[in-house]
Design brief:
Blueprint lengths: L7 E4 L8 H10 L4 E5 L13 H9 L4 E8 L7 H17 L3 E4 L12 H20 L2 E4 L12 H10 L6 E6 H7 L9 E6 L28 H10 L6 E3 L4 H4 L4 H16 L5
Parallel strand pairs: 1-2, 1-8, 2-3, 3-4, 4-5, 5-6, 6-7, 7-8
Helix pairs in contact: 2-3, 3-4, 4-5
Length: 277
């Protein structure tokens, strides 16, 4: 692996059936320095009751950064339940050494009307701000490109964060899958704290029919323009982490995940990383 391998990271969705320790070992074997853990994997990571100090110790002994916990769901539907979820996840993030908490918006077709969605976003950001500030945790807002999502466009997130003078407390996740589905052109590199990468290779799917289960590792058959997106981010100065987040079972069940990741890293390095040359 070349030095640029250190720019890559592993989201636990790459290998949801692996233990945290096994995932971390895989990241180290690939020359990576970052990992993301999740709170939606049954029998694993957070949901199985793993103490945050155990996560911290596993990362520190391997020289890894815990980039984020992924995620507080429906964050822009703020209520007492969401507040309790947020406080618990932020405390876990702080104690396990995570640098950020990913914030995922409502994606069930509700809260999408003009005016309503912007107001709901600001309410949630205002409520989250003091919780994140006290813990020293960044809130990573991740717009989803699905037509059913209440926050599709990064531009609306950037506008809301700026209106609250909350730059640095909140940053964006640039997800290559969702960026493509949303059709948004601007990259917002300065506001981006993390990039999620995955590809779709199924030629039978239209963009509007693509779902998480179709997300594989990026290769020459990718239809999402990962190479172009990553090259543009790099040429515009982004030097954060590119975290692999494939949801497809074909990736999860592969006999040689390490080899598949190596091949995807090589493809991206050969085709998108010219900005670092």
């Amino acid at each position: 692996m070349t030095a640029t391998a250190s720019l890559f990271a592993l989201n636990h969705m790459c290998a949801p059936n692996r233990t945290v320790s096994s995932l971390f070992d895989l990241a180290v074997s690939l020359g990576m320095t970052g990992v993301e853990i999740r709170n939606d994997l049954e029998g694993n990571a957070i949901l199985d009751g793993t103490p945050p100090t155990e996560i911290r110790r596993a990362a520190e002994t391997r020289g890894l950064r815990v980039l984020s916990i992924n995620a507080l769901q429906r964050f822009n539907d703020w209520n007492d339940v969401r507040g309790a979820e947020a406080r618990a996840l932020i405390a876990y993030a702080r104690d396990c050494g995570a640098e950020a908490l990913v914030l995922v918006p409502v994606n069930d077709g509700t809260g999408r009307s003009d005016g309503e969605r912007q107001a709901n976003l600001r309410i949630a950001l205002k409520a989250l701000r003091p919780l994140l500030e006290e813990a020293g945790i960044v809130g990573l807002v991740e717009p989803l490109g699905f037509e059913t999502c209440s926050l599709r466009f990064k531009s609306e997130a950037v506008e809301a964060i700026a209106s609250l003078n909350a730059d640095g407390i909140f940053q964006l996740v640039h997800d290559t899958f969702h960026h493509c589905l949303a059709g948004e052109k601007e990259l917002f590199v300065r506001e981006t704290g993390l990039v999620h990468i995955s590809g779709v290779a199924d030629n039978a799917l239209s963009l509007r029919d693509m779902r998480d289960a179709d997300r594989v590792l990026v290769d020459g058959g990718d239809r999402l323009g990962n190479v172009e997106q990553l090259a543009a981010l790099l040429s515009s100065g982004f030097r954060g982490s590119f975290s692999f987040e494939p949801f497809a079972e074909s990736v999860h069940k592969t006999d040689d995940l390490r080899g598949a990741l190596e091949a995807s890293i090589a493809h991206i390095q050969d085709n998108a990383f010219r900005a670092l040359a």
